[in-house]
Specification:
Elements lengths: L1 E11 L2 E18 L2 E4 L8 E25 L7 E21 L13 E23 L2 E22 L2 E2 L5 E18 L4
Antiparallel strand pairs: 1-2, 2-4, 3-4, 4-5, 5-6, 6-7, 7-8, 7-9
Length: 190
């Protein structure tokens, strides 16, 4: 499912305000009963095992942005643009593995497993761009941008319905980036 709405408003002949809202969502469910066979090398003649597996994933994203633009001349070469964008992307992933009756001769841990993961990303972006003509056919473009991103994932892992703290995690990560640019654009003759 996807949806986007954009609205623009001309404040006057040289100023405008634009806003956009967006939503994106998809669900994925997958299940089956695979059989795995290991043979050769350290496994010798080998062994096989089967399991019922099921996976459910929900991913979605909410986005909103607002932009203000102002022109300072009729040629529209002298301008200021200020932008802000917010993106929030929560998810939910579940995975099940239920192994067929275990054979003691199989050299692997075939304990049933379940995981429940809630990843989330929230991102703020602010940007300011400014362009000014210096002379005919010469423009100076400058700007700054700041990005703040926060990722989090609360992942719980279970073995035979018993919570495993050692295999679970609560992950948090912050990312801050600032940047600036300047560009001189000039044309002479052809």
């Amino acid at each position: 499912m996807m949806a986007n709405v954009s609205v623009g408003y001309e404040i006057d002949s040289v100023s405008s305000l634009n806003a956009t809202l967006g939503y994106h969502r998809y669900n994925l469910t997958n299940d089956g009963h695979p059989t795995t066979t290991m043979s050769g090398g350290p496994y010798g003649e080998g062994f096989s095992y089967g399991n019922f597996m099921k996976m459910k994933n929900l991913n979605q994203s909410f986005t909103g942005s607002i932009d203000y633009q102002r022109f300072f001349n009729t040629a529209r070469t002298h301008q200021l643009t200020v932008s802000y964008q917010l993106t929030h992307s929560p998810g939910h992933n579940e995975n099940w593995s239920e192994f067929d009756s275990s054979n003691a001769a199989i050299p692997m841990d075939l304990t049933d497993r379940y995981s429940d993961d809630h990843p989330t990303t929230t991102e703020h972006t602010v940007q300011v761009d400014y362009s000014v003509p210096l002379a005919p056919q010469q423009i100076l473009n400058t700007g700054v941008k700041y990005l703040n991103r926060h990722n989090r994932a609360d992942s719980k892992y279970y073995l035979s319905d018993v919570y495993s703290e050692g295999m679970s995690s609560d992950y948090r990560y912050r990312h801050n980036i600032g940047a600036a640019y300047a560009e001189y654009d000039a044309h002479w003759g052809n």
